[in-house]
Q: What sequence folds into this?
């Protein structure tokens, strides 16, 4: 079915949470990249003064002379209903989503409004799937979670690998490895608050703990099973890359998102599809030492954050407050590369397909703002190759290759090809 644009709605896109670190960057990206003639944009939030300050900054810097403001509060469902009914796409950075996100999702389902966000909060995504997937399918509302650094690079690079394998070898890869290869950037108080929320959920809610244990917890109900055993927790020598690898802190969300993409698309990558995400650390003793240090640090941090009083002390005295984040210089100077290797087999033997996905921008903020903003533009223009008209979706299953093209147009690298034996390290 084709989405018919709803011409009664006042706005094309509302950036909800525009006064925050990520929201301000999304608003900046959309106003720099698109003109008022092409896009009816509004900025939403709870603080009129801050929204006005942002508007005056953006109208000074860009060709936009005016940008409407939408006031509301995440704790006031009536304001969210009005917001969802007045716009075609809601693009939200109001987090932690576990704390603030559910009423907005409910309002978008009620209004049949497309929605995208930046959440990496696995336990909340699971709750949204269980509560809203079917109603969103019925309402033709596309709810696309994780449209930032979690999980666009991993999800879309895997899509590139699998599409290339299908075109070139007439089969897909039954195993995919995602490597966070290179990266530099900052972290905001809002992101750390969302992480704290995840630890809180895990400490108090048995379903949340079960969701974090089950590698298939984001798959559709009845399909929460498969061959993957769970994420990597220790240093490991990676046979595909011939390098040492450490566990990745983003694996808990990215791996589950890939499995959900495969399931929602009807298992084009096979029922036996396996995926793992890791950080490559090189070969030899240096590689092993690097992997041990990262694994040890991550283990210690997880152990500390799992203890209530330590968690409270760290979030109060160590983490920056919500609203604080990397400086403009850090955002500009950041960069990242995610590499995905997929291994498949034909009658002629095994093959490896490789995709590289990256940008010269801070991954969690400068690049994330582009990923989320362009996801919203894809939904608005119905620029997707997805067979799905509604539901709780992933970037690959809900939008797909058109998002890769749009990101290339705004400076991302996204390449794919067959990996030859001498490229192995
Ligand atoms: N996936 C990724 O790669 C990625 C990257 C970056 C961020 N994130 C996620 O994005 C979210 C936002 O991060 P951030 O750094 O931008 O956080 P932030 O700077 O703290 O911004 C949060 C925004 O939410 C608004 N807000 C808070 N409570 C509200 C309420 N009751 N009603 C309406 N608005 C409310 C804040 O408004 P005020 O200005 O009025 O306080 C602000 O605009 C976090 O969940 C973070 O984990 C994900």
A:
């Amino acid at each position: 079915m084709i989405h018919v644009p709803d011409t009664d709605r006042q706005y094309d896109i509302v950036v909800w949470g525009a006064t925050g670190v990520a929201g301000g960057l999304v608003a900046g990206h959309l106003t720099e990249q698109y003109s008022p003639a092409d896009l009816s944009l509004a900025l939403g939030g709870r603080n009129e003064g801050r929204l006005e300050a942002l508007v005056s900054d953006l109208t000074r810097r860009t060709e936009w002379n005016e940008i409407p403001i939408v006031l509301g509060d995440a704790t006031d469902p009536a304001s969210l209903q009005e917001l969802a009914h007045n716009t075609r796409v809601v693009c939200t950075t109001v987090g932690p989503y576990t704390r603030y996100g559910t009423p907005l999702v409910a309002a978008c389902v009620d209004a049949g409004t497309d929605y995208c966000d930046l959440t990496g909060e696995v336990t909340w995504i699971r709750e949204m799937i269980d509560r809203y997937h079917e109603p969103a399918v019925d309402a033709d509302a596309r709810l696309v979670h994780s449209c930032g650094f979690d999980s666009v690079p991993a999800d879309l690079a895997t899509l590139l690998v699998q599409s290339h394998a299908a075109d070139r070898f007439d089969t897909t890869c039954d195993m995919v490895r995602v490597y966070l290869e290179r990266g530099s950037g900052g972290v905001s108080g809002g992101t750390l608050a969302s992480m704290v929320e995840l630890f809180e959920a895990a400490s108090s809610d048995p379903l949340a703990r079960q969701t974090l244990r089950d590698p298939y917890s984001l798959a559709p109900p009845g399909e929460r099973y498969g061959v993957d055993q769970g994420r990597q927790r220790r240093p490991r020598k990676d046979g595909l890359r011939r390098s040492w690898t450490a566990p990745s802190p983003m694996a808990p969300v990215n791996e589950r998102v890939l499995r959900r993409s495969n399931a929602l698309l009807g298992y084009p990558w096979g029922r036996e599809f396996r995926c793992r995400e890791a950080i490559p650390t090189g070969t030899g003793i240096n590689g092993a030492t690097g992997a041990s240090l990262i694994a040890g640090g991550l283990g210690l941090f997880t152990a500390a954050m799992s203890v209530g009083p330590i968690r409270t002390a760290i979030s109060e005295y160590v983490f920056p407050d919500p609203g604080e984040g990397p400086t403009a210089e850090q955002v500009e100077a950041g960069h990242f590369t995610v590499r995905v290797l997929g291994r498949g087999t034909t009658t002629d033997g095994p093959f490896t397909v490789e995709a590289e996905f990256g940008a010269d921008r801070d991954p969690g903020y400068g690049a994330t703002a582009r990923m989320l903003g362009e996801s919203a533009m894809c939904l608005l223009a119905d620029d997707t190759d997805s067979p799905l008209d509604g539901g709780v979706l992933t970037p690959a299953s809900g939008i797909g290759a058109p998002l890769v093209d749009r990101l290339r147009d705004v400076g991302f690298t996204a390449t794919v090809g067959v990996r030859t034996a001498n490229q192995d390290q």
The first helix runs from residue 21 to 33. The chain has two domains: 11-149+365-409, 152-362+413-423. The chain has a mean pLDDT of 95.
